[in-house]
User: Fold this.
Amino acid sequence: MSAPLLQTRDLQLAFGAVVVADHIDFSLSEGERLAVIGQNGAGKTTFINICTGLIRPQSGQVFFEGKEVTGMSPRAIALRGMVRSFQLPQLFTEHSVRDCVRIAAAGKRNKLGLWMPLASAIDNAEVEHVLEMVGLADRAEELSGALPEGQRKLLDIAMALIMKPRLLILDEPTSGVSSDEKHGLMATIMKALDQQKVSAIFVEHDVDIVSHYSTRVAAWIAGRIAADGVPAQVLTDPEIRKNVIGE
Ligand SMILES: Nc1ncnc2c1ncn2[C@@H]1O[C@H](COP(=O)(O)OP(=O)(O)O)[C@@H](O)[C@H]1O
Ligand SMILES: [Mg+2]
Assistant:
């Protein structure tokens, strides 16, 4: 059997007295769509930050495709194929939608992390393909800063997809988006991920979105995974309904 796509062993981290990663053993297989749920402060973002190299755990290990990545830089981890969606930096809002994707593409190519000169390094057909996939092809010339929130999120996804990830991690992709638009946004994201055969982890609070778009749900309580299984099981678990979903 091949190694899991992502695996953590006994991750531990505390900020002072607050335990945010409490002996987390976790494993994700290729093709999964994992929804992460949990109250604010439960440690969801911290878990993502540890996996993607933004924070070092105090102890424990992270493996991607069977190779240890604990302590590697976020960039080195992203180049191996574990990518988290960008929170579109302010700097980019004065660039066109297309140029944002080009900048992300150049960032992958250039080991120094310098963007210029852009033109030589980029596969333009790939850029257009990614813009098509997220439905932004006809807004490619517009300034990214002028996009409504839902489309900014899709631009984030496009910038992540141009990195050709094996695993995309999305921290609250539907936050700031009206409930009417959430389903359309998630449907577009998931279709693009299917086309590119990208596995996904997404943090989401809306139970309806979780049950529609995940194949598996992990519920975080105080730095530990309190429940992990198929959506129908986790979302109906009495402890989870009481302590995570808040009913
Ligand atoms: N850099 C930090 N320094 C101190 N405390 C932090 C830091 N980052 C997060 N925390 C705390 O860790 C806990 C978990 O935060 P976080 O992982 O962001 O939770 P979630 O994403 O589930 O809302 C919170 O109590 C938060 O205040
Ligand atoms: Mg968070």
User: Anything to note?
Assistant: The first helix runs from residue 44 to 51.
